[in-house]
Specification:
With 194 residues, this protein is an alpha/beta fold. Helices cover 23% and strands 27% of the residues.
Length: 194
Amino acid sequence: MLLKTMASDAHLALATPSDWIQRWSHLLPAGGRVLDVACGSGRHMRWFSGRGHPVTGVDRDEQALASASAFGQTVLADIEAGPWPFAGQAFDAVVVTNYLWRARLPDIVAAVAPGGVLLYETFARGNESVGKPSRPDFLLENGELLRAAADLRVVAYEDGFLAAPERFVQRIAAVRPANHPGETPPRYPLAPGG
């Protein structure tokens, strides 16, 4: 029974949208287009489509995309070994969780449209002390997301330890400014409705 409960909890954790993504999704414009990178079975696609956003998810796992396709358009692509399938396209939100392929960071950031938001959360250095992933290739270095998003306006950033489940994470919510010089800068609320 305990094993079944643990397996159910793990499945629920994978099906539930990230707290970080939920917290900062209010930064998207109403009806804005969303790109979910390494979308898996579509937990974030479901979250955004349920809020009226057209969503595109990309993953290399065909079976996972079969589930994700219920929530929007899906693209089968190995973005590590093949070309970036969204060259020249911009989205109102680019969402990435539990995924890191450093060679794609510039493409991911470039896909954020003016006025759009980057919501990124993945494992960071230190995670090797508590579990997987543990290879440095899959762990962000201190401040790495800040450097990757240097041309964006950072609204929120965290780099630290979470206890349940134990993991070291780095996460960012950053907006590509759309205003022009001399305009009043936009106000990015730190809470929904704020």
